[in-house]
Structures are given as C-alpha cells and as structure tokens.
Design a protein that fits this description.
Helices cover 29% and strands 25% of the residues. It is an alpha+beta fold and 263 residues long. The strands form 3 sheets. A 7-stranded antiparallel beta sheet has the order 2-3-4-5-1-8-11, with helices on both faces. A 4-stranded mixed beta sheet has the order 6-7-9-10. The termini are far apart.
Amino acid sequence: MIERHEHLGKLVTDATTQLSAASPWLLVTTSPTHPASADFNAESARDIQRWIGVQVADWPAPIPLGGEHPDVRTDRLTFAPARQPGRPANSYYYEFHSDGSALGGLQVGTLQSSPPDGEPVWALGEGAVAWITIAMLRLNAAFAGHVSALGEATVEVTVVRPVGPSPTTPIQVWNNAGGAYGPAGRRQYAGVGTARSAVDLTTCLSPRLTTAARPLLVDLLQQFGVSEPRHVDPSGVVRRRHFTGHDELIHAWADAIGIPSEP
C-alpha cells in the first residue's frame, strides 16, 4: 500500500508541472492495488479516445475531453487541449496509465472579492467540486475496468494552487447557502487541500458511486472550513436543488449514470 501511495504522489507531482498557473486545479487520481499491464499504441489510443468521448458525453458541463488526439507513449496516454511544446495545459488535463492508474484535472475557481474586506480570493464553487470529483472518480474507475484493473485502489482528490503571477492569493470555497453566491469557509493561504482514501473502484461503477465519493468530499471541504457537503447527503443522494441554476443538468447526468438524486 505504501508503494501505491508513493506512486500516486508521484503522478500528482509530475502532472502539476504540466498545468497552467492561471487558476487552481482540482485533480482526482486513482492507483489500483493490483496494477494492469496494458500497452498503448496508435490504434489502441484511438479506441480509448472514442471510448472516453462516450464516457464524458453525459457530464453536466461540456468538457471536450477525448475530442483531441492524445500524446501516445507505451505506458501512458495524455489528453489536453492543443498547446505548443513545453507550454502548460489549460482547462483540462488527463493521464491514463498502462497500470490502470488515472489522473484527471480541471481548472476551477474564479477571482472574487471576498467580504467583508474585499480581499481577492480564488473562489471554488462547492457544487463544481462535488460533481467534478464524482465524475472523474467514475471515469477513472471505468478506465481501470477497461484495462482489467478494477478492485481496491488508492484515491486522492487534490486542489492544486497556482504558482504563477499571484501565488499568495488565498483559496476559498463558495456556495449559495446564504441565498447568493458567497463564501462558505475560511480562506486558505498556504498549501493545498488533499483528501486520500482506499476505495473499491467496482463501487464507483454502481449507484454507490456517490457513497464512495462523499468521504473524500467531506475530508477535502473540511480543510477549507466547510463542515458538511451540501450537494451529497450522508446516504449518497445528490441534492439537485443545491446546484443552483444547474439542477436540470445535474438531474439528467445523475439519471444517465444511475446515481440517486432528489430535488
């Protein structure tokens, strides 16, 4: 297990160097306990590219993952928007490894003035953190199944801080709990938020997906001063009404992947 933890940590560390510093990133990384031994080539990469397009078609936000040709190596496929060599990725970044490990990242957060003093913060929408974590956990599990690596895995959910022009800008979780979009937790000035757990990836391809994801959300959000997730209840039911303005999209997505939800 220690070896898997070290492997997972290296995946995150290496990927961070590939990410744009324009805003924070939310990363979901999985490392199966019993690795696969797949090999990638141009043909298998095209097959996986098509397969990914099907997997993300129901996501509640249009992320063009799988719409581009991946960078193909025998041990890894990397999907990112078109970029110049040596330039960091923007918007999204995904690695699928031959051992069944996967790392997905989406840029999250917007610069906001946080009351009462108006200090600039990176505001992370709590709803976005919830659905992205659930969606990427499911995609990572589906990939593990695709290469015969389903079963126990170490899962890590990480908020990566920008290291560009404004590295000292704090990160803060925001939501609509107060009737308007605003701060829900404390400002985090240093480090990043990380939640890690052992998860049976088979569970993540079933209606119990949200039950598997919720402890990770609880752990991550508590590090930002949010004691209880609003968007997934303790039994794993998605609370659509808290995805303000996006409840119908969340409803369609939840139904499509077979997870429980309620108004």
